[in-house]
Fold this sequence. Notes:
homodimer; alpha/beta; Aspartate Aminotransferase, domain 1; Aspartate Aminotransferase, domain 2; 2 domains; 7-stranded mixed beta sheet; 11 helices; 38% helix
Amino acid sequence: MIYFDNAATSYPKPECVYKEVDRCMREYGANPGRSGHRLSMHAGRIVLEARELLAELINTKKSDNIVFGLNVTDALNTVIKGLLNEGDHVITTSMEHNSVLRPLKQMENRGVETTIVQCDSKGELELSNVAKSIKPNTKAIICTHASNVTGTFMPIEDLGRLSRENGLVFVVDSAQTAGVYDIDVNAMNIDILTFTGHKSLLGPQGVGGFYIRDGIDLRQMREGGTGSMSESLVHPEILPDKYESGTPNTPGIAGLAAGLQFIKEVGIQNIRKHEETITKYFLEKISDIEGIKIYGTSLSKNRAPVVSINIEGKTSADISFILDGEYDIATRPGLHCAPLAHKTIGTFDRGTVRFSFGYFNTKDEVDKAVEALNSITKEVY
Amino acid sequence: MIYFDNAATSYPKPECVYKEVDRCMREYGANPGRSGHRLSMHAGRIVLEARELLAELINTKKSDNIVFGLNVTDALNTVIKGLLNEGDHVITTSMEHNSVLRPLKQMENRGVETTIVQCDSKGELELSNVAKSIKPNTKAIICTHASNVTGTFMPIEDLGRLSRENGLVFVVDSAQTAGVYDIDVNAMNIDILTFTGHKSLLGPQGVGGFYIRDGIDLRQMREGGTGSMSESLVHPEILPDKYESGTPNTPGIAGLAAGLQFIKEVGIQNIRKHEETITKYFLEKISDIEGIKIYGTSLSKNRAPVVSINIEGKTSADISFILDGEYDIATRPGLHCAPLAHKTIGTFDRGTVRFSFGYFNTKDEVDKAVEALNSITKEVY
Lengths: 381, 381
């Protein structure tokens, strides 16, 4: 099986991830931070280790400011609903995922005003369009680092500078980039960085979260047991407890720590180089095939390892179905939970077939996909 | 190591749980319900299987009404914040966990009125005290099935009847009972049942959720990608998607399915019988030791497999520390995230040492704990 659906979840994971999840459950499967016995302390240590590895990856020393939750959607809901108040204005882009757009839509019912800055047909954002959307009541800019539909990068550094100059909170969703592309929350002026553990951070599903800069305060989405200040009916304010209630996904976090360790050992620049090579190779090969339409950033520019295509005369569902059934190649068809991104690139009616690459993909696998696409287009033409 | 901290998280898990989590990650580690390829479909099937097994356990055919999230705290927050509105009154008990009390405290700031019915010093609830708390604006009764501090059962059947007669929504937290004690959401008139996967349901940490009866509607706590209705910026209303956004913890849910299958194969009545036998044996043995104070329900009555004690002259932290360090026995000291329960039983100042038993504990282990407690009390007396 050739797996090109890494933007949905990376697969396979490094062997060390499987092993650490299993070891966590078998050897130190207790509740971290709740009891005082050694098993519980061991579980607590691995959670701390994951926080520290993640803090290091995004260049902060503040590992307590790394918060773990269910997934990046959970994190984005906590951030959007905890940060914005009635009368606030927020700026986002037309390339966002529904994990940003749907909570913002919900917040409109609570009196939050949203400007969705339209990107061009390649999914690219013009900074001046963001700048001119800033109003006296603008509170935040919320933006993906790279589109999950086209891989198009957003101008994070520029947006960070613009946010800082205007006293805005800058929220970046790194779901498609963390673990492959350099993220420096300080140099990039990122105030809140949301992440998912199960994509390019190479951990298991069931862990997402966010980094939050000191001095920014959110209403927590959940209250409950934290293992701290158990005597109080009022939820504690200390980090990370404020945003983490109930038993965490310890095996998932242990697996994420192993994934982060793997990234550190291989080197993020080597991972990036490999994924960029694979992506460029695929783009080069398919750009020669008649009948294939490639979406997003022009081929000469870098994109995150996500490529959306269509073949004239076939639906995206049909193409993915044929790739899966006849060629054993896993891709994702349809709208990819980002309706406005599809409107932006002109594929709202039909979606796209998305190929998304990971560290374990090879040129040989790409060759097989190219061959398959060649055959499928010939069926049509 | 002797593990008596099963009320925090059950450990070890059945071998099939470890194996299924590993198999999920290695063999079908894709994103369920997102893409159409076979790996993704396989992942989707295991999530459905977990829903169906859980539905069967609580005697409902409505597996779509089983919702998965991060943990039971996440579920209780969704329920409490999604159900209650300004001006509503809600009744709960003094034996609740902070996962109920802290969200309710938060809701008081939004104009929700709470009555916390005081239980007696054994942690027992008098039904008439609940009945007389019902007011015209009472919306719901929220109650644990059994206390996590003393194992004391709440009169669920009676409360269900009372709720039904008064048109209230009856919410039961099964964190300490599901998988050991029979729960029938229909016969018991339970409208919403919250559960945790990692305690007596024998799954891994990182999965909790709730069952919700048809006809009860909550505001969802999160919006985002659901893999359904991707074209819409408005979150879908269908179950379970309405309450499930973003990528689920598929390996955790797969492990939970294996835990549920294990319970089904062993038989819940056999699990219960074993845990009750162990608990009674422990209670009998320690009730003879001078200097040990046992809290909760009288010894002749059934309790969930949770026993809280203290030894005169030592703090609960000291006792747990000695049990861990000198005898390799894991227990939990302190307040157990349920401050009012400790006020109720008179241990708010010092907490308790909690012994909580699971299916894999043996009489031999209990003997060792009894021996240890004998020695520790002798040090004092």
